[in-house]
Design brief:
Elements (H helix, E strand, L loop, with lengths): L2 H17 L2 E6 L5 H13 L3 E4 L2 H8 L15 E6 L4 H12 L4 E7 L2 E3 L1 H9 L3 H44 L1
Antiparallel strand pairs: 1-3, 1-4, 2-3, 4-5
Length: 173
């Protein structure tokens, strides 16, 4: 990689990471190409990015971001997963780690704070932003549905009463 390419890479990575609210650092040694592509695909589907990068270049990129405190995690063959959704990379990485022994989470960062494996496991158990949005919409729409059913109920009672009266009068004839 030429010097100008390295500068561009560091600059682009710094811009992407500075927008992220969480970053996961993992050792990936021994992953096959198919396993690596599967992990990338799962990350993309969940709104996160997964990159295998050179440690030196990654340290340069994160040095000017809120994640500068995690630079000591970059030893050996490491990869990063990051997203603006704080839960997405943690969920995918933890699930992937359970499936493959070759993939090991080393640590990470959350809103500028260095976090360990236990905190990453905790993040992975939280609902994602999309799940929270769905629950919020459900909570907001539930009172409206109740109001509509209450407003409709008196009319329904009158209709049932009239139907019962007409059925009784037809039976008596």
């Amino acid at each position: 990689m030429k010097r100008s390419e390295k500068k561009d890479f560091v600059s682009n990575l710094k811009n992407e990471i500075s927008k992220a609210s969480s970053i996961i650092v993992a050792e990936y040694s021994g992953l096959t190409v198919n396993e690596s592509e599967d992990l990338r695909k799962q990350m993309r589907e969940n709104g996160a990015k997964f990159k295998v990068t050179k440690n030196r270049l990654t340290k340069l990129a994160i040095n000017e971001t809120q994640f500068k405190d995690i630079s000591d995690l970059f030893k050996g063959p490491t990869a990063i997963a990051y997203s603006s959704d704080p839960v997405a990379p943690a969920k995918v990485a933890v699930d992937f780690e359970k499936k493959l022994e070759k993939f090991k989470i080393v640590g990470g960062g959350y809103n500028g704070e260095k976090i360990d494996k236990d905190k990453i496991d905790f993040l992975a158990k939280l609902p994602s932003l999309d799940e929270l949005r769905g629950k919020l919409i459900g909570l907001i729409s539930a009172p409206a549905q109740k109001i509509v059913s209450i407003a409709i109920e008196p009319g329904s009672q009158i209709a049932r009463l009239l139907n019962a009266k007409s059925s009784n009068s037809q039976e008596s004839n």
